[in-house]
Design brief:
heterodimer, A: Methyltransferase, Methionine Synthase (B12-binding Domains), Chain A, domain 1, Rossmann fold, five-stranded parallel β-sheet, B: 442 residues, mainly alpha, Heme Oxygenase, Chain A, two-stranded antiparallel sheet, 69% helix
């Protein structure tokens, strides 16, 4: 459904900050019955990864990147009616970005995919201090925790979060993922029992279906 | 924060300023009623609240002033005399001897304001004037608070409160001048509503900021990178003061090694060098493979912006040495930075031999006018290194350097000829090396 022409047109509009054009593209896809995962994977994730690359190559400014982020965050809201219509399965997850991690689109998409699969996804947002995360886990008692990492240099904060969760809740499963793992850091998951690296939304969904 | 028209009424014939005043009046009153200002007027404001205010405002002014200065759509309204960041930096330097940690709440609030400022520049740059209006207007109120600050913190003269004394005796005149220019230029433009909305948004951001500034949540304090560079955004930095000092010294050494950086990027660039070097210091705690990945990433980012990878090599060596001096017990960790520098050098030498880099660099120094040699020391090395970066896969490395260094409005024909010649020679060497590598049997 998201063919190359559509993707390129969307990316162009996103980079130019044409909110309404991006909005129309997404509403058109939703009206045509696109699956949420496909929308996230092939349009939102792909375009935001490309935005990151273009910034890295000095082809766009940090402001362009922030604008693309802002537009994409707004578009995620269009999907909520679909997500919340899913049948619940009485499972809960806490999804969070680690301390000093301010990129939250990935975490939001994970929360949405969980909701779509019937889970209650409690998304704590960007830059969540470890203490706040632990308090929330204590309160909610989720079936798993998912931690998102976009900037690889924040991996120290991620491992501190995992250490703290495993110390207070040893049997609680932890999923980790995010753009940062495109460049490395996969070893982290192997250092802990009950911690799994989820490299894509596809794999997340497959895993959720098994639980 | 008092209504901007207290000094002297703005003419009624100035519709946008009048509208701004009327439509943001409630925000003025609300801000002034917040506990931060109440405590300030009662001379009971804790010093850490005041200093964190200066830090937060430096984040906002750093970004706002950079965006205004770089935006053509608002160029007519901007000149460097409007900058407040230098005043904030002096105030912060005054309090530097006392270590006051950064409060995360105010930093987050300030960063949220800057995020909106950046978006405004992309989406509708003229609305930056709404943000500027708020801060120019606040100068009038600041003047009224200057005596409170001096009394509260026992300050002498303008020490520690230069920001609050912006424009000196000219504050009223400057406000009138600002108002006049805005009204005359914008007339009855259709943008008025969006400019007012920008002012509203800025006030809302300031309300969040001042609520976070008093009372401060002390448990959330630590060093934040914006204390090093107000425009750095969010990224890790050392939490050990010794490491911070070492990173700043290393940054200065790196900056000193290549004169081009100061010439091209100025003090703003130096602040980014400082914050980047602080970030590099945090990498020493990571696994070597991740250290290398992170450094490769930053190399790509910098090289495509006119800063060849050889600069990183030097910075990593300076940094490791400085860190080991002050925290010798972590020398083994810091060695990872040297190892990464060695990897960068090895990658470059696969493309251009060190002997070629040295000889071309020396040739460049011979070719350029004597009076340029010091200001642009080691620029020849940068040129050759950029060619190696490009060959190594960093697209645009040469163009990012060449474009600036061959600008005829900046440089003489002799200089441009020398730059062009060295680049061509380096490219020929690289091409010859590639040919050799690709020959069968080798």
């Amino acid at each position: 459904m998201v063919d190359e022409n559509l993707y390129q047109g969307y990316l162009k509009a996103l980079l130019a900050g044409r909110r309404s054009e991006c909005h129309d593209t997404v509403t058109g896809l939703l009206a045509a019955g696109i699956g949420v995962k496909e929308l996230y994977d092939r349009l939102f994730q792909r375009s935001m990864y490309r935005v990151g690359e273009l910034w890295e190559e000095n082809q766009i400014t940090v402001a362009n990147e922030h604008l693309a982020t802002s537009i994409t965050e707004g578009l995620l809201n269009l999907v909520y009616p679909t997500i919340f219509a899913s049948e619940r399965i009485d499972k809960k997850a806490v999804i969070s970005c680690s301390a000093n991690e301010f990129h939250q689109i990935g975490g939001k998409m994970v929360a949405d995919i969980m909701e779509l699969n019937g889970w209650d996804g409690h998304f704590l947002g960007a830059n969540t201090p470890i203490e706040a995360l632990l308090e929330y886990v204590q309160e909610i008692r989720p079936d798993l925790v998912a931690l998102s990492l976009s900037i690889l240099s924040n991996i120290g904060n991620l491992t501190q979060s995992i250490d703290a969760i495993k110390s207070d809740f040893p049997s609680l499963d932890v999923l980790i993922g995010g753009q940062a793992f495109r460049w490395g850091g996969a070893d982290v998951a192997r250092q802990y029992a009950g911690v799994e690296l989820i490299p894509s939304l596809d794999e997340l969904e497959n895993l959720l279906k098994k639980i | 924060m008092t209504p901007p028209d207290e000094c002297k009424p703005v003419q009624d014939s100035m519709p946008i300023m009048k509208r701004l005043k009327e439509e943001t009046a409630a925000y003025h009153a609300k801000l002034e009623s917040l506990p931060f200002f109440k405590m300030l007027m009662e001379h009971r404001l804790p010093l850490e609240c005041y200093v964190n205010q200066l830090r937060a405002l430096s984040i906002i002014h750093g970004v706002l002033e950079s965006e205004m200065a770089g935006e053509k759509a608002v160029a007519v309204f901007w000149d460097d005399s409007l900058r407040k960041l230098p005043l904030l930096e002096k105030d912060l330097a005054y309090f530097q001897p006392r270590v006051l940690l950064d409060a995360r709440g105010p930093v987050a609030a300030a960063l949220a304001v800057t995020e909106k400022i950046r978006l405004r520049r992309v989406e509708k740059p003229i609305t930056l004037l709404g943000c500027l209006y708020v801060f120019e207007g606040s100068i009038l109120g600041n003047r009224m608070h200057q005596a409170d600050i001096a009394a509260n913190f026992h300050l002498e003269g303008v020490n520690g409160c230069r920001y609050y004394f912006s424009y000196g005796d000219q504050v009223g005149a400057r406000w009138r001048e600002f108002s006049q220019k805005i009204n005359d230029t914008l007339g009855d433009s259709a943008d008025h509503g969006d400019i007012v909305a920008a002012a509203d948004e800025t006030f809302a951001g300031l309300e969040t900021l001042y609520r976070a500034l008093y009372p401060l949540e002390k448990s959330a304090q630590s060093f934040h990178i914006t204390r090093i560079n107000p425009e750095a955004g969010n990224h890790p930095m050392p939490q050990d003061e010794r490491e911070i000092g070492a990173a700043l010294r290393a940054s200065a050494q790196g900056w000193n090694e290549f004169g081009y950086y100061l010439q091209r990027y100025g003090q703003r660039g130096k602040r980014f060098s400082d914050s980047d070097t602080c970030w590099l210091a945090t990498l020493a705690a990571l696994e070597p493979a991740i250290v290398r990945q992170q450094i490769d990433w930053l190399c790509r980012v910098l090289a495509s912006r006119g800063m060849p990878t050889i600069m990183m090599e030097y910075s990593l060596r300076f940094l490791s040495a400085e860190l080991a001096k002050v925290v010798p017990e972590k020398q083994a960790s810091y060695q990872k930075l040297v190892d990464a520098a060695d990897s960068l050098r090895a990658a470059r030498e696969k493309i251009v031999a060190s002997s070629d880099l040295q000889s071309l660099s020396a040739e460049f120094d011979q070719a350029i006018p004597d009076d340029m040699a010091q200001d642009y020391r080691n620029t020849g090395k940068l040129l050759v290194a950029a060619v190696a970066d490009e060959k190594g896969g960093i697209k645009g490395s040469v163009a990012a350097l060449q474009g600036w260094l061959t600008d005829p409005q900046r440089f003489s024909g002799g200089w441009i000829g020398a730059v062009t010649s060295i680049l061509q020679k380096a490219q020929r060497i690289v091409a010859a090396g590639s040919d050799q590598v690709s020959e069968p049997g080798e």
